[in-house]
Amino acid sequence: MSTAQVEGVELAYTRTGSGPPLMLITGLSGRGQEWGPQVELFAADFDVIVPDHPGSGGSSRPSEFTLTHHADAMAGLLGELGTGPAHIVGSSTGGAIAQLLALDHPEVVRSISLVSSWARADAFFRHQFAARKGVLEHQGTAAYAGVSALLLFSPQFFRDHYDEIEKWHAAASRGDAGVMSARIDMILEHDELDRIGGIDAPTLVLVGSADACTPPHLSRELAATIPGAESSMIEGGHLIYKENVEGFHQVVTEFLARH
Q: 243 with 36: CB under 8 angstroms?
């Protein structure tokens, strides 16, 4: 694990492989390790940079949690590393950050892959996260992680891989409740639907068919609004890069090969 001082925080990251630069930005947990086997798979063809979000994993806590600051920090890291424009693959919250990178820091972006993401919180999204935040604040991190698992993994994966769910639940239960709560508020503020039509980077929109956290209609909205965006759906829940490892990697690498 390496660190870089960017935008007032010490940002932790790993760097693996060689080739064109590719940044993997994880979701709400903010921990880059969530990408699991995808890092080594991509490292066969790319210089893979995997940051922890500000305030998560090995990164220091920012003075305030905003997605704008997160995007500024990711752009700053790419600048510090001198990679030139990078492919950005962002899952969920990482996809929201990727949108801001393409809009506000186009000089560091070669393409964006928006995985299980959204541009504007709708009634379902807001209701879901209000309920999850209520569990977090009144019952604690373990209960929050338990409820979250029901929305992040498909029912079939839950049934067939419950040992993996238990491991994920144990890791997710160890987070800081205050940080988790602030990060929920942060994502609820994300609203770029009126701006994403200005994205001119090649864009892939990818979603799992059983995503109950950011349902497919939110990805359809992204794909319909971003000019020239490619759209794909594969089997799996919200964390499709965990559930459908090979399918996810194939769709993304085929897109990257075209750009």
A: no
